[in-house]
Backbone:
């Protein structure tokens, strides 16, 4: 393939057209810096995406916003969008060991002992998380001990009742989309601390799932790309294959489509594991390579199932479901507040998502219908009018979601390289955030941080 070389020397090339990359490009452009965004997909948004149905754009990636996520709320306003509350009125449903029950509030009925133990466990997690410095969790006095065990190991040692263990398992899986046995306990505490605390992470009211974005979260990326100048600045289908920093004055970036570009600085806003596909000259330091190789993506399949009516609301249900079955772990009402566009959104997560990814869409749909029928005990659950889903593990430019995760032992060994520039290469993306890592808010915070890092150098 012959090369097509763009001789212009950009101030910054940004690899990745998700929220982080687009926000960084916007902030740099506002300071009169020349930027170019290279996106490997045929769309912008990264791990935020949408599909159209019934005249509306439905988020099949990230979608919620909490009251403490000030950067995201500000961006929503800046781009001319608004929010509306996540429906939460009514009875919630929990399925444990095939037995269904109803509850209100945050914690399901676990019996007196299980309830007390769950409350104590959440309090202990909150207290430990508050001692973490999000800037440098690896410097905590207990960092080595906490990083050397999994979240599951901590649960097994500190929680005795089966019901309480299962509820903690569901909670961890719903936040990280991986099983507790696969995640570092230190990393779990770090993310809880960086997200404002355990309960703020888990709750709907006053928590990370309090509101939704009218017009879709994906629209934020679409609008940012358009305001940057469309395909003049944001180049779709430009998958970076080679990055050369041997010239001390610039970075040379080559794409798999034969296009080559030059910049004073490069920002990577893609998940760490995707960096392992790129040829770097010279190679990245070994510690950074190790981080890229071992920081794995969560496993998630998101679905939205549509009905003629919000029949669950008329039955007094909120549409929120927690389950320990080996498939769907959590559901929410996806309808509008007024009951229009009746729908339920939910997730296959962690190891269960890995198993169900190999099944057919019809098999997954049947499993969702079975859960909803048994949760609401109503025949109408068996007759959806549409079913949409997104298997993020099969998206080659994401390899999973919601974010990359540190297994035991990684954070204290090479975790500090996550934000460290390497020569003219800088790093953004929600994984690098010190506030709401793994969330859209974290992506925006990382964009602000990397912009502040770059401006004095340009």
Residues:
């Amino acid at each position: 393939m012959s090369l097509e070389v763009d001789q212009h020397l950009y101030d910054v090339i940004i690899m990745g057209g998700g929220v982080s990359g687009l926000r960084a490009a916007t902030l740099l452009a506002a300071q009169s810096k020349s930027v170019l965004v290279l996106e490997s997909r045929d769309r912008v948004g990264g791990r935020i995406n949408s599909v159209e149905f019934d005249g509306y754009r439905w988020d099949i990636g990230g979608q919620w916003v909490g009251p403490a996520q000030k950067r995201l709320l500000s961006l929503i306003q800046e781009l001319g969008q608004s929010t509306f509350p996540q429906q939460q009125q009514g009875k919630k449903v929990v399925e444990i060991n095939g037995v269904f029950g109803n509850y209100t509030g945050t914690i399901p009925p676990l019996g007196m002992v299980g309830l007390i133990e769950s409350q104590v466990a959440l309090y202990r997690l909150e207290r430990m998380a508050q001692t973490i410095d999000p800037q440098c969790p690896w410097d905590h006095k207990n960092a080595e001990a906490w990083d050397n065990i999994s979240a599951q190991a901590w649960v097994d040692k500190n929680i005795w009742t089966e019901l309480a263990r299962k509820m903690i398992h569901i909670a961890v899986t719903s936040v990280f989309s991986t099983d507790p046995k696969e995640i570092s306990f230190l990393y779990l505490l770090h993310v809880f601390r960086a997200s404002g605390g355990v309960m703020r992470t888990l709750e709907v009211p006053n928590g990370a799932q309090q509101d939704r974005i009218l017009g879709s979260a994906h629209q934020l990326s679409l609008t940012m790309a358009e305001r940057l100048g469309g395909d003049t600045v944001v180049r779709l289908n430009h998958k970076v294959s080679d990055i050369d920093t041997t010239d001390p004055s610039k970075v040379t970036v080559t794409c798999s489509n034969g296009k080559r570009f030059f910049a004073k600085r490069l920002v990577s806003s893609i998940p760490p594991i995707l960096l392992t596909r790129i040829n770097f000259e010279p190679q990245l330091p070994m510690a950074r390579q190790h981080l890229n190789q071992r920081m794995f993506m969560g496993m998630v399949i998101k679905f939205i199932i549509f009905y003629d009516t919000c029949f669950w609301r008329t039955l007094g249900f909120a549409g929120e479901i927690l389950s320990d079955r080996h498939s769907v772990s959590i559901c929410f009402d996806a309808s509008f507040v007024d009951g229009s566009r009746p729908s339920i959104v939910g997730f296959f997560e962690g190891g269960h998502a890995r198993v169900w990814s190999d099944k057919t869409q019809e098999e997954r749909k049947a499993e969702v219908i079975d859960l909803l029928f048994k949760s609401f005990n109503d025949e109408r659950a068996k007759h959806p009018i549409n079913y949409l889903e997104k298997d993020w593990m099969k998206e080659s430019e994401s390899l999973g979601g919601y974010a990359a995760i540190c297994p035991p032992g990684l954070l204290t060994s090479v975790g500090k390289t996550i934000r460290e520039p390497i020569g003219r290469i800088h790093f953004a993306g929600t994984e690098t955030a010190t506030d709401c890592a793994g969330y859209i808010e974290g992506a925006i915070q990382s964009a602000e941080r990397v912009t502040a890092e770059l401006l004095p150098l340009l």
